[in-house]
Specification:
The protein has 264 residues and is α/β, with parallel strands linked by helices. It has 2 domains: 119 residues, Rossmann fold (3-Layer(aba) Sandwich); 123 residues, Rossmann fold, CATH 3.40.50. The chain is built from 11 helices and 8 strands. The strands form 2 sheets. The chain has a 4-stranded parallel β-sheet. Helix 10 links the parallel strand 7 and strand 8. Helix 7 crosses helix 8 and helix 9 packs across helix 10. The longest helix has 17 residues. The mean pLDDT is 94.
Length: 264
């Protein structure tokens, strides 16, 4: 990450001033702790600040949503974590949440309501698409014009929540040539990390899923692989290293591409 810190609003500090921002930016575990995905957090924060969006983060008060625990079968742990989060969110009167992780997005949108946590939840690709549609975001350089980019659909944005277009619209806004993989949208192959698989050893088989998916991306001959999920980024990056392609093909989150095109 860059050395100069961004001045990002923190919910507790605003609350002490009797202020409630319009959005909570939920950073997520990867966005806070994973060195690679911290760059995505930073890129999205730059855009929010550039657009003067009324938002804040929880900072040290943010915990895991509990999604991995539920996927791994530990329902009790999930409910404990979810109820603690709901208590914090409701104490700040939070109504709208932006996430940079489809897993966080899905669990907030579809699973927290059953426990009393009802919020308007938006993924960062959806938010950025809205900003583009409202002409609040303008691409300032043509660094991606005619660049061949392929997009990997995260399971929890695609099949789980049927949003296949938000990220693609952002890529098209950059002027890039979007090259689809053989399996895409509703038939896209998982990166191999969902359902708790990120945190366990691979099972017996002829080939790991992340290798299969990386091979499909390489088949397109694209210059870049775009994604919009920390799990997907980890697996595809590992796949590129496995195929010795990490110096030739780069994996970026769509928000990184957009922030760069905005000169941020």
């Amino acid at each position: 990450m860059e050395n100069n810190p961004l001045k990002v609003p923190v919910m507790a500090e605003l609350h002490a001033q009797d202020k409630t921002p319009e959005y909570l930016f939920w950073v997520g575990c990867a966005g806070a702790y994973d060195d690679r995905y911290k760059k995505v957090t930073r890129a999205f924060s730059k855009i929010l600040l550039h657009l003067n969006i009324d938002f804040a983060i929880l900072g040290n008060e943010e915990r895991c949503t509990g999604d991995p625990a539920r996927r791994a079968g530990n329902e009790m742990l999930f409910q404990m974590m979810a109820l603690m989060n709901i208590e914090i969110l409701n104490s700040y009167n939070i109504k709208k949440i932006i996430t940079i992780c489809p897993h966080c997005y899905n669990v907030f949108k579809n699973e927290y309501p059953e426990l009393g946590g009802k919020y308007e939840v938006i993924h960062h690709t959806q938010f950025l698409r809205q900003m583009i549609d409202q002409e609040k975001i303008k691409v300032e350089n043509d660094g991606y014009v005619n660049k061949m980019i392929t997009y990997h659909d995260p399971c929890y944005m695609g099949r789980a929540n049927e949003d296949y277009e938000s990220a693609r619209e952002i890529i098209k806004e950059l002027g890039a040539d979007l090259i689809e993989m053989r399996r895409n949208k509703s038939s896209a192959l998982c990166c191999g990390a969902g359902g708790g698989q990120m945190f366990k050893e691979a099972e017996e088989g002829d080939k790991e899923i992340f290798i299969e998916r990386t091979e499909e991306a390489l088949e397109t001959k694209a210059e870049m692989i775009a994604s919009s999920c920390p799990f997907c980024m980890t697996m595809i990056t590992d796949g590129l290293k496995y195929k010795n392609k990490e110096e030739e093909i780069f994996n970026y989150d769509v928000v990184e591409l957009l922030a760069n095109s905005m000169g941020l």
